[in-house]
Amino acid sequence: MPSDRTALPEHGRPAADLLTELSRLREADLPVRGGHVTAYVYDTGREAVHDLAATAFQEMLEVNCLDPTAFPSIVALERRIVSAVADKLGGGTGIFTSGGTESIMLAVKGARDARPVAGRPRIVLPATAHPAFHKAAHYLGLDVDHIPVDGDFRAEPAAVAAAITPDTVLVVASAPSYPQGVMDPVEEIAAIAASAGVLCHVDACVGGWVLPWLRDLGRPVPPFDLSVPGVTSISCDLHKYGYAPKGASVVLFADEAVRRAAYFASAEWPGYTVINAGVQSSKSAGPLGAAWATLSAVGAQGYRDLAATAMDTAERFIAGVAGIPGLRVLGDPAVPLVAVASDDPELDVFVLADEARARGWFFQPQLAYQGVPPNLHFTLTGVSDVGALLSALADAAKAARAAGPADVPADLLAALAELDLDSLDDAGFTGLLAAVGVELDGGGPEMAVVNTVLNGLPPATREALLVRFLSALYAG
């Protein structure tokens, strides 16, 4: 692939040239407006709100969140944001973070440090819990106890109870889980955790800023937040259905002592005092300013309207999927997240995703896991054009059925499963990819081949291959 490695120019380049180059580099990016990308981005359809957020971001761009005594504006803004979120999610006290992963990292750290155990701390995770919990456990030195989900993709309370040990410091439930958008039985899981004297975190990163507004509208939303007895922390991303620019999230704690346990302080050096509420030290206050501006500009009624429109969109999409031969929705989504699988062996969802991409749409592939079939994920908002989306899905399904499943050499999976990745440097791995038709510059086969290969491998092998892929991609 062409190298992007360059030395700095001897003399600075004109601003117009640099902005032109940025525009050129973004030509291959997925669009962030318009609803044709069903993952990663959230669009209100209100350009004035997006423009305001960009202006607020720029206003706070150079303010450093490292020292709240030097920049009291960050304290004022964080208090306003956290209190607004707490008002809708059952109270508590919290921390503004860069995203769901950092919020989850702090929830895990708070649980680990607030309730020390004699052995190695453990965390109980449903199969559908976000990988950020695995990342937190890996970084913070916890072991993970996996529990199954039922036929509706909900965590099984009995399995939670059976998994708790004297070394368990945290139990997790999702509201909802990302893959299928379904709610775990939070009340039952939190009660089990409380009876065992264990903290319980609710991952509402994706649902936390849409469920309360749906509840306001009279829709049936089961209890899930800090008002539920036994729920001790909850995470909510504002850069998802809060529509703020990334990265903006909040983690709330029922007990301020657990929040303090999430902090980090160090006096073991002769330099400036180090005290961090989050994982990062120096960071721009741009996302903080943009999140506050977005929340304030949209307002409560605006969020009710956006939630109603997004959920209506999801329900019309679900009804439309039922009319496309070979496709079905997984589970009963509680928020505007929908997973679509295929019952037709000749209709490969990975090929379908490629056909949709060729038609200007991005449908996010999800690999098979513990009995959940491969599927396509759709994050829907009010700007999603249901008619156009269903038409694109139906056309892509028809084309995918005609094309048939992805053609993967029979011996490739076995070869990859037995491959000694440690024996290859990044250049060697790039050469291996090229030998099977995968080019890192975007050429080669469609993604259906890659996804089919990954889908046929165990998770540990998938992870190892993805790490090597990422390393080779950035090696240039």
From TrEMBL:
<keyword id="KW-0663">Pyridoxal phosphate</keyword>
<dbReference type="InterPro" id="IPR050477">
    <property type="entry name" value="GrpII_AminoAcid_Decarb"/>
</dbReference>
<dbReference type="InterPro" id="IPR015421">
    <property type="entry name" value="PyrdxlP-dep_Trfase_major"/>
</dbReference>
<dbReference type="InterPro" id="IPR015424">
    <property type="entry name" value="PyrdxlP-dep_Trfase"/>
</dbReference>
<dbReference type="InterPro" id="IPR015422">
    <property type="entry name" value="PyrdxlP-dep_Trfase_small"/>
</dbReference>
<dbReference type="Pfam" id="PF00282">
    <property type="entry name" value="Pyridoxal_deC"/>
</dbReference>
<keyword id="KW-0456">Lyase</keyword>
<comment type="similarity">
    <text>Belongs to the group II decarboxylase family. Sphingosine-1-phosphate lyase subfamily.</text>
</comment>
<dbReference type="GO" id="GO:0004058">
    <property type="term" value="F:aromatic-L-amino-acid decarboxylase activity"/>
</dbReference>
<dbReference type="InterPro" id="IPR002129">
    <property type="entry name" value="PyrdxlP-dep_de-COase"/>
</dbReference>
<dbReference type="GO" id="GO:0030170">
    <property type="term" value="F:pyridoxal phosphate binding"/>
</dbReference>
<protein>
    <submittedName>
        <fullName>Pyridoxal-dependent decarboxylase</fullName>
    </submittedName>
</protein>
<feature type="modified residue" description="N6-(pyridoxal phosphate)lysine">
    <location>
        <position position="240"/>
    </location>
</feature>
<dbReference type="GO" id="GO:0019752">
    <property type="term" value="P:carboxylic acid metabolic process"/>
</dbReference>
